[in-house]
Amino acid sequence: MNSAHEQITADDEFLWLEDIYGERPLEWVRSQNAVTEEVLIDPGFLTLEGGVLEVLDSTDRIPMVAKRGTHYYNFWRDAAHPKGLWRRTSWESYTTEDPEWEILLDVDALSASEGTEWVWGGALFLRPPEGQEYTRALVVLSPDGGDAARYREYDVTTRSFIEGGFDIPTAKSRISWAGPDALYVGTDFGPGSMTSSSYPRTVRTLTRGQDLSDAELYFEIPAEHMMAVVVHDSTPGFERDIAMDTIDFYSHRTSIRRGGDWVQLDLPDDVNVSLHREWMVLRPRTDWTVAGTTFPAGSLLVIGLEDFLAGDRALRVLFTPDASTSLQSWSWTRNYLLLNLLRDVSSEILILNPADGWSTESLDAPALHTVDAYAVDDEDEEAGDDYWLVSTGFLTPSTLSRGTIGSGHRPVKATPSFFDEDAYAVEQHFALSADGTKVPYFQVAAKDLVLDGANPTLLSGYGGFEHALTPAYSGVIGRGWLERRTPEGRAGVYVLANIRGGGEYGPGWHAAALRENRHRAYEDFAAIARDLVERGVTVPALLGCTGRSNGGLLVGNMLTSYPELFGAISCGVPLLDMRRYTKLSAGYSWIAEYGDPDRPEEWEFIRSFSPYHLLREGVDYPKTLIWTATSDDRVGPVQARKMAARMEALGLKDVWFHEALEGGHAGASDNRQAARMHVMSYEFLWKALTGSL
């Protein structure tokens, strides 16, 4: 062989499973599914599935809305409408217990009439002329729940697709309105139009009535970059076209259209940029020195866009992180800036007033809860400074409130209770990782928890892409885990890990576990597992862990590197073959997170966290369920397939595999599929840990 890569590829006896829709691989999938379903699906499974589906289909849950003009739009799934209804109502009706909804699109009926199992992907409205109502939107529909979707022009007044209107075929597209009769289209135009990451490389201007093949090139990026996007800011008085060259997950270049040319903003590639009217807000991912002043990673800065383009670099600091506090997001109302912060993974909200020298006030937020504030409609003349406030906690059903800056807020809707929250308590603990770092985690357990190591415990985590895991109410977790009881009466304990690689403490927390430092995320998770045992919550035989996507890679590493810490592992829609991940589905786009296995010096550290290559004979691995979806076009199902096949080939008996034949990266395209997915994981873990599997 000419290279280590060729040797490893030649030694991969399960490459044939990478043919996603091939007859032989699908036969293997169906055979594995039958075995797993035979073991797990029994009357108790079906009862729990019914209880979880009741949560997901509940007609009392909050119908979250987006305001467009005078209407409030919502997408809704329930038992009668598994694929969902796109609908709208008025504010007066929305505030009642039983709003009157105008049905715009019945996705179940559409699927039946067109013979395609459409999955809702959202709607992109065209801004109307001043003083007029919103009438047109691009409706986004996926044929199988994957990322590839079709965009079709829709009229909400006639409640119908527009004959002869815009209709972009199914692809991994990025599309925005350029005006009433034009779109900026990034899609698969044929050879050379997509990046190595399987996203659009070019953006073209498509005018009404024009064939897609005749669309004129407007913006393009190199093929090795991740994705090209162009959006039109239609804010009156601030109209502009903005282009984004996304180099990788954490690097991008932003350009503004001026005088027929693209003017690239003079910023480091790792500075996040957002524009609002005259303001440009910046968040550096690494320390950034400008004109002799160093702004720390994770800070938030502001400057006038025109001032910046003219050469001014007098950046104003709006937020500076500290060891316990990070900025998670920000949102503009018409005249104010809302900041959503985390302090030791509990929410804080700040309101900044640019008209008063960026003065700051706080909104109250309860401890160990997540509270998000964001604008209702920053372009509304009367309600432009209104905001939504969503508050939730592990034992606090979510509440949606609406407020006006300066006038307080009041509750509008609340999630019903799905389990006896009063029987449980939430605690936050800190484990000491291998390098001495304190790593937080939340524990949800019965108030009468006995610390004698006899409690079935589920540890969940993610640890990647600067994504923070925060407290949130879940009737599914309540019914699926917390309310379960052993014959001795012990309740399930649920634990959420806030390991490095995530965004709980800002970009530094994330960067600490990137690429060659990936092991820190796994050391953190292992430290929490050990801490649970040391505190007497559980023992390894009663400790299970679960994760999805990057979290699937996390628990895959628990399986292969820390098998002695766990009794069972549920690994969902996972990355596992880190030698070939860049060649599978959208994997190339994650090189900035994990490294490039085609570079020998990087494969040396990547192989240390590639579960598919870490499996060994003679190891006593925990009981394992690996689950995925055929239509997942982000991670793809093949890594899960190959891992299960290799474990089986090693003679491991306690390994089960399940693949949903639809559902995309979420693993489910409707509530029925979601309930089956959740219960498959919970039932496996409970039975494996309590000795009934």
Automatic annotation (TrEMBL):
One of its GO terms (biological process) is proteolysis. Residues 492-690 form the Peptidase S9 prolyl oligopeptidase catalytic domain. One of its GO terms (cellular component) is cytosol. Keywords: Hydrolase, Protease, Serine protease. GO terms for molecular function: oligopeptidase activity; serine-type endopeptidase activity. Pfam families: Peptidase_S9 (PF00326), Peptidase_S9_N (PF02897). Residues 9-401 form the Peptidase S9A N-terminal domain. InterPro entries: AB_hydrolase_fold (IPR029058), Pept_S9A_N (IPR023302), Peptidase_S9_cat (IPR001375), Peptidase_S9A (IPR002470), Prolyl_oligopep/macrocyclase (IPR051167). This is S9 family peptidase.
